Amino acid sequence: MAYHVTLRTGNLLNAPASDFIVNPSNTVLTLGSGVSGAFAAACGPALQNAMTRALRETGKLQKGDVVATGGCPRFGSVLHAAVMDYNPGATEALPRLGEITTILHNIQTALASFAALHDKNVTLALPLMGTGVGGLDKRRVLEIYRDFFRSAVDFECEVLLYAHSEGDYMLMQRIFGAERS
Known about the structure:
single chain; 5 helices; globular
């Protein structure tokens, strides 16, 4: 079984209804700017309330952790990926490329559990993580995505990979190859 990646351009929150959508967030689960700000605008206070409850239940997060909540009606679950470290006393707020890989593994764990529980194919809407405020190189992040989604898994998953701009979409096409668009 495998991941099937479809490249898209536009607003991630206009993605077709999916089982999961990824919010590149932070360790204190506060909606902020960039993609996370778009989530705040699209989902309203219900999402932030769900994130606050999840943090209370989960406890302190580290970069690379992923927490699932509801709060965004068109999507089964929002996977909040702790890309930025806003914990008090954090010495390095910005992400590193290795943390993107950790996040992808944690997302995969959530997808596998869901697929096993529901005995169905899974859909995931995913933006470029860490490339806005986080400052990570888009090409390197896309190479990590490409290599990660080539791996075999025990479930079928349609990944809708979103580029915010036409330039990012063209870069995605070069990295993933024209046959993947």
